[in-house]
What we know:
CATH topology: Thiol Ester Dehydrase, Chain A
Strand order of the largest sheet: 1-3-4-5-2
CATH superfamily: Hotdog Thioesterase
Number of helices: 2
Order of helices and strands: EHEEEEH
Structural class: alpha+beta
Helix content: 25-40%
Largest sheet: 5 strands, antiparallel
CATH architecture: Roll
Radius of gyration: 16 Å
Bound molecules: coenzyme A
Amino acid sequence: MSQKKSPKDSCVETSYIVLPSHTNALGGVFGGTVMSWIDMVGAICAQRHSNRICVTASIDALHFIHPLELGDTATLFARIVYTGRTSMMISVDVYAENPIRRIKAQCVKAYLTFVALGEDRKPTPVPELLLTTESEKQAYADAKERRKALLAQSRS
Ligand SMILES: CC(C)(COP(=O)(O)OP(=O)(O)OC[C@H]1O[C@@H](n2cnc3c(N)ncnc32)[C@H](O)[C@@H]1OP(=O)(O)O)[C@@H](O)C(=O)NCCC(=O)NCCS
């Protein structure tokens, strides 16, 4: 496979304002809306790393930790934490910021697996990760364990 690539080369940061069209009956954000934002930033991250069209193979974990309210700014950070042969695990963190009170809180933590497809629409190899910092190495080790557990679960 081609040269190794740093996670820094594919990370994604994007923000949205939570609008009335994004909310549920309680005035908080509708979970499915945030899930689609997460899927989108995860796919952009995977496609930047692989330079391929990528599909979501699984949402491995998704935890809503804190509510996002109408008018909040939602900021999403996606970074690649692990590569297999053709798959990539992407971590996505979502933060809420109230524009007036300036309070920031982490709202969601998610892990997703994407698979890169070749022109034949079959899974195709992706570049390995070039890990330089301790936090990148730790995130890779954690993701490797997470993937092992997921594969064992999917076989049972
Ligand atoms: C994901 C998909 C491409 C895998 O195809 P496949 O023929 O099963 O391919 P393989 O068995 O060769 O697996 C390819 C890789 O995907 C991984 N994979 C397959 N299914 C997976 C799942 N459910 N969760 C996590 N990883 C998965 C494999 O472990 C393998 O990883 P590796 O190459 O890094 O070791 C195929 O199942 C698919 O097209 N699914 C639908 C995707 C989709 O429509 N997503 C929503 C819209 S984007």
